[in-house]
Amino acid sequence: MEHRISEYINMKLTQKRMSLKELEFKSSISQSQISKLSRGLVSKLSAGTFYSLIKAFDDNVKDASGIVYKEFNFKLNKVDYKKRNDFGELMKSFETKENTIDIIAQKAGLKESRAFDLYYRNGALEAFELIMIEKAIGVEAGTLFELYFKEN
Question: Gene3D superfamilies, per this entry (predicted)?
Fold first, then answer.
């Protein structure tokens, strides 16, 4: 996914009158990594890096994602539910599963194999994926970032 983290970093550094050293301290991201990010040399933006930067700039996921993913349309996909017969419709009221991996993947536009990697393997979570997953499960922007990257 194409991102504009360099544009975001440079804009925020100017707005906040912040030095790279101060950003390094506040974000816990090395100056060399910040330099690469600010020059557009990093192709994949991890969710952790994105969150560290927005917290360092005292920003929020919703506003930051509008800048970083300016061209991306954060619209959910429709879920293709299988048509049920009368008995299937009756049984729907007894089902309790919501937000299953396959439903979240469909809504967020992720391949099921990618969702499986994120849930069960060591798939590196990208920022846009976490934003779409938040939308898919209906939580406020930034909720999963805060829960997942909460400082202990």
Answer: lambda repressor-like DNA-binding domains
User: Where is 104: in which H helix or E strand?
Assistant: helix 101-108
**93-100 — which CB contacts under 8 Å span 24+ positions?**
99/136, 99/137
Indicate the number of domains in the chain: 2
pLDDT tens sequence across 3-53: 999 999 999 999 999 999 999 999 999 999 999 999 999 999 999 999 999
CA 35, CA 126: separation in Å to the nearest integer? 19
* DSSP symbols for 20-67: HHHHHHHH---HHHHHHHHTT--SS-BHHHHHHHHHHTT--HHHHHHH
Question: In terms of residue numbers, what domain contains 90?
Answer: 86-148
